[in-house]
Design a protein that fits this description.
Blueprint: E1 11-20, E2 26-36, E3 40-44, H1 51-58, E4 66-70, E5 83-86, H2 98-108, H3 113-126, H4 142-154, E6 160-164, H5 172-189, E7 192-197, H6 200-206, E8 209-214, E9 219-225, H7 234-237, H8 240-262
Helix pairs in contact: 2-3, 2-4, 3-4, 6-8
């Protein structure tokens, strides 16, 4: 699957993206970024550097003040780009079952519950929750709620998966497990993944590319390849190679924060 990274023509291209909010905050300035088929890209940077804003612009939840986002097939609506979005909080409907929450994106598109059942159960199987289809969010752990949120993003069969710090509030053991599950699904389906995180360690473990951003204004200051092979497991997490990558990315993040401090 990773061979497709070499010369893939299927690119999401952010060209000269700037975003200034009505209160005058410059969230992004002249940000350009290409994301290729099969890449796992982490956006890493301090709070306020525009990581989440960039993600929301990709999926049309925010409109840039200038610049544009080009897709492989121009002129299509984002709905046809097959984008899945996972937020930091699971944002589940408390009155709906696990099945009902995952079914929601298809329901919005007018798909009947009967017609959607196979796809919903397939998404739940991918995240290991087929036995919980009738459970309610209040009956689930934090990690299980996040799995439901991921299943809801996957039920539309996206080609692009955007994730905004989805594991930040979870304990370390659950976070490690979901990191492994996410990599398994990514390798299986060959999505483009753009993953926002504050964690150097998480970004190195997951990504084959880390984009380091600085704030005020939000912009890219480093674009680093993580060339360690997949699949990755605890052997990689405890290896000297992983430690070296983490050290190098930490230094790049420190440089980004020092740029911000000098402004």
């Amino acid at each position: 699957m990773l061979k497709s990274l070499e010369k893939s023509a299927e690119i999401i291209s952010l060209k000269g993206i700037s975003k200034t909010f009505p209160n005058g905050t410059v969230a992004l300035k002249d940000l350009s970024l290409d994301i290729r088929q099969g890449e796992f890209v982490s956006l890493l940077g301090p709070s306020g550097c525009g990581k989440s804003t960039a993600l929301r612009i990709i999926t049309d939840l925010e409109t840039p003040s200038s610049g544009q986002v080009d897709w492989p097939l121009e002129g299509q609506a984002n709905e046809e780009h097959e984008v899945g979005f996972v937020f930091q909080e699971p944002t589940l409907m408390p009155w709906a079952t696990v099945f009902g929450n995952v079914f929601l994106p298809l329901r919005v598109k007018g798909v009947s519950k009967t017609a959607a059942r196979e796809r919903v159960m397939g998404a739940l199987e991918m995240v290991g929750l087929t036995e919980f289809e009738r459970s309610y969010p209040r009956e689930l752990s934090g990690g299980m709620k996040m799995r439901v949120s991921i299943a809801r993003a996957l039920v539309t069969k996206p080609k692009v998966l955007l994730m905004d710090e989805p594991f930040a509030a979870l304990d370390e053991i659950t976070r490690f497990k979901l990191n492994n599950d996410l990599l398994r699904l990514w390798e299986m389906h060959g999505w483009k993944v753009v993953f926002v995180t504050h964690s150097v360690f998480e970004s190195v473990y997951l990504s084959n590319r880390i984009v380091v951003m600085a704030a005020r204004p939000g912009r890219i200051v480093n674009d680093m390849a993580i060339d360690a092979p997949y699949p990755r497991d605890e052997n990689f997490r405890t290896s000297p190679e992983y430690a070296t990558y983490c050290r190098n990315v930490s230094l790049a993040l420190q440089d980004a924060m020092s740029i911000e401090d000098q402004l």
